[in-house]
Write a structure and sequence with these properties.
This protein is globular. It is an alpha/beta fold. It is built from 6 helices and 10 strands; from the N terminus they run βαβββαβββαβαβαβα. Helix 2 runs parallel beside helix 5 (199-209) and helix 3 packs across helix 6 (231-257). Strand 3 (50-57) and strand 4 (60-65) form a beta hairpin. It has helices spanning 29-33, 71-83, 134-147, 183-189, 199-209, 231-257, and strands at 19-23, 39-47, 50-57, 60-65, 88-97, 107-116, 130-131, 151-159, 192-196, 212-222. A 5-stranded mixed barrel has the order 5-9-8-6-10, surrounded by 4 helices.
């Protein structure tokens, strides 16, 4: 098989890997690949926002490919990773919590997502749910316990924009369209845990393709208290998310080998 167009990989390059971790940030890929129990991580290729490394769990190959920000670029990655034979996808990212009991540095494991983005509607009608695969959710929960990371499991809101779609008033214009005004409090009352930008796309596409998917995000800000993201908070959230994702994937692989 020739290389798929956007992520520029072939099936032989990924050594038959069936599992992939998909961070958004290309700069996070190397960190994921070198986090224990992953071993022998090595760079494969980068094209546009798609940076790929390969690592191993007990000699089983695991692909790590970044997807950039938002649903459209993630959707391309999911399509092409599936073409290469990947069957399980785990997103690791960062997020802003909206429930008051969630703290910076804690992990949020998505059980389902509000489809407030557009890419997933190109694959299924809006009535189709964006739900994580139960095996992936369970493996991530066990990973959080193993990493000794405080975690929350629940519904995530995936937005197509970072500023108005997440009701942020610290944008250039400081204006939020009327349909988004008050939205955060509504999601809070509906027990939505956090905002991010990719989970709903990933979960919907994976389900429609018959694949397994899940998502864990490290909390880097609590929107009920502040909009500011410090370097310390970013580091704490990234560390929590990466550790949970890597251990979660290791759990999935080891369960499959039993």
């Amino acid at each position: 098989m020739s290389n798929v167009y956007h992520i520029n990989l072939s099936a032989s390059q990924i050594e038959g890997a069936k599992t992939v971790i998909v961070p958004g940030d290309p700069a996070r890929v190397e960190r994921v690949a070198q986090t224990p129990p992953f071993s022998n991580g090595r760079f494969l290729i980068q094209k546009r926002e798609y940076c790929s490394w390969l690592a191993y769990v007990d000699e089983v190959p695991v692909l790590i490919t970044s997807t950039g920000i938002g649903g459209p670029s993630l959707g391309i990655a999911v399509e092409e990773l599936a073409m290469l034979g990947v069957k399980t996808l785990v997103r690791v990212g960062t997020c802003g919590a909206i429930q008051t009991n969630i703290h910076v540095g804690e992990a949020i494991i998505t059980s389902g997502a509000v489809r407030m983005e557009g890419t997933s509607s190109h694959y299924a009608p809006i009535e189709y749910p964006a739900v994580a695969h139960y095996e992936v959710v369970h493996a991530l929960i066990e990973g959080a316990k193993q990493a000794k990371v405080s975690y929350h499991v629940g519904v995530t809101c995936s937005s197509d924009s970072f500023y108005p779609g997440q009701e942020r008033y610290d944008s250039y214009t400081k204006y939020v369209p009327r349909r988004f005004q008050g939205m955060t409090e509504e999601w809070r009352q509906l027990h939505v845990l956090n905002y991010e930008m990719e989970a709903a796309t990933l979960l919907t596409l994976a389900s429609t393709m018959g694949l397994r998917a899940g998502c864990v995000c490290g909390t880097i800000v609590n929107r009920s208290r502040s909009e500011a993201i410090s370097a310390e908070a970013l580091s704490a959230g990234e560390t929590a998310g990466v550790n949970v994702a890597v251990l979660g994937v290791a759990n999935l692989i080891r369960q499959e080998r039993q």
